[in-house]
Write a structure and sequence with these properties.
single chain, 7% strand, two-stranded parallel sheet, 2 strands
Amino acid sequence: VKKGQKNLMLIPIAFVNDHIETLHELDIEYAQDIGKEVGAERIGRCAAPNCDPTFIECLADIVSTHLKTGETVKPQMLMTCPMCTEQTCKNAKMWWAKATGYLDSQQKKAKATSS
């Protein structure tokens, strides 16, 4: 707004569906409250993918690929952020590793290579 842009568009790239918390935060807290505060004339929001057919096809393809390859979880999902010190985050990652069987499979691989 300081640079003369009075009409803004929010693009919630971190959300795959619209839900009340997101809509309230973006449409009311940002678009209305902060918009008035900074002098924006209009703030719009792009819809999340929700049930868009292309988005659903992409999700189905990911699931199908995982089922065909036997991959239960991507290793990146189990990584913590660099410099993360939150024990709850580490506990959640360890839970996923156990729940998906990833931890067991990695331990079996390690035993097989050390034998």
